TrEMBL record:
Name of the gene: bamD
Subunit structure of this chain's protein: Part of the Bam complex.
UniProt keyword annotations, A-Z: Cell outer membrane, Lipoprotein, Membrane, Palmitate, Signal
The keyword Lipoprotein appears for this protein: yes
Annotated spans, Disordered: 294-320
Cellular compartments annotated: Cell outer membrane
The protein, known as: Outer membrane protein assembly factor BamD
Length: 334
């Protein structure tokens, strides 16, 4: 029964998809086709409006509604939840009509399409943390809104674009902090410190600057770089005294000290230690490199070692101090 139900649902879906293909009358005039597209937009029938707007552009590429239909096609694709098509249509309009009086609207819709690209159906109904998702679309949206505000600062869409840029900038900074904390959990302290410094240097006036300083402090402490850790901590205390990582004026690391013991040592609660704990700031990989260097140094012949090279050169120098008479007699009268 379940298989039959699935087949019935599939047949109904295919029937609905086939029936949704609208056949346009080829005898429609430019004005009639444009009016029907406007009616579809007013009724939120965006798929039908897209079909009519594309037909209008292809049938009457130099008509009086050609430019307007291209502009409204961006909006129809955006409202139809097709961000890639909306961005493509916006880029085409900007390329073909850079001096159009409403080209700022194309820039604005292009930024909106990227802004909503990651906000799918789940994000609308579930409390998803957008700062932990891939920031590619958010970065594109920020750059597109930045183009709008820089090229058309007096545009009617500039104020809204600036507000969205503030939100996107905070989101991008929070994403960098999440990545930095991931590096801390993986003991990649250099990468974590670099991420924290990147936030401090490039995302000023965002709430994540204090988090960036905290990440830098923790990473430098793990690396035993005391001077850098102290500088980061003083900056954190001075500018963000109420930061969660500061408890009674003392810095509390967010991530616990990594347990580098083997599984056998952990299972026996330390009764059987297969390897000695690593010194601060060192890893197994760095110890392997040092060990390989020492083994290679031990395999060098004794006569080629630097200290023996000096003695050998001194001996050769003494031999070179013979007189010319000694050379002529091949050393017989030395």
């Amino acid at each position: 029964m379940q298989v039959k139900h699935l087949l019935l649902i599939a047949i109904l879906a295919l029937t609905a998809a086939c029936s949704s293909k609208e056949v346009l009358d080829e005898n429609l005039s430019e004005a009639e086709l444009y009016q029907q597209a406007q009616t579809d937009l007013d009724n939120s029938s965006y798929t039908s409006a897209i079909t009519k707007l594309k037909a209008l552009e292809s049938r009457y590429p130099f008509g009086r509604y050609a430019e307007q239909s291209q502009l409204e096609l961006i909006y129809a694709n955006y409202k139809n939840a097709e961000p890639e098509a909306a961005r493509s249509a916006a880029e085409r309009f900007i390329r073909l009509h850079p001096q159009h009086p409403n080209v700022d609207y194309a820039y604005y819709l292009k930024g909106l399409a990227s802004f909503d690209q990651d906000r799918g159906l789940l994000a609308r109904f579930l409390p998803l943390d957008m700062t932990k998702r891939d920031p590619g679309a958010a970065r594109d949206s920020y750059n597109e809104f930045a183009q709008l505000t820089s090229r058309y600062p007096n545009s009617r869409y500039a104020p809204d674009a600036k507000q969205r840029m503030i939100y996107l900038r905070n989101l991008l900074a929070s994403y960098e902090i999440h990545v930095a904390h991931y590096y801390l959990t993986r003991q990649a302290y250099v990468a974590a410190a670099n991420r924290g410094r990147y936030v401090v240097e490039n995302f000023q006036e965002t709430p994540s600057v204090g988090d960036g300083l905290a990440v830098m402090t923790e990473a430098y402490q793990r690396l035993t770089l005391d001077d850098l850790a102290a500088t980061s901590l003083e900056t954190l205390k001075l500018n963000y005294p109420d930061h969660p990582s500061l408890v009674d004026g003392q810095f509390v690391p967010r991530e616990k000290e990594a347990d580098n013991r083997s599984w056998l040592a952990k299972a026996t609660l330390g009764l059987i230690e297969s390897e000695t704990p690593l010194p601060p700031g060192q890893t197994r990989a760095s110890q392997d490199v040092i060990r390989q260097y020492e083994e290679a140094a031990d395999q060098i012949p004794s006569e080629l070692k630097p200290e023996n090279q000096d003695q050998r050169s001194e001996a050769q120098g003494n031999n070179n101090d013979r007189s010319w008479f000694s050379y002529m007699t091949f050393g017989l009268f030395d």
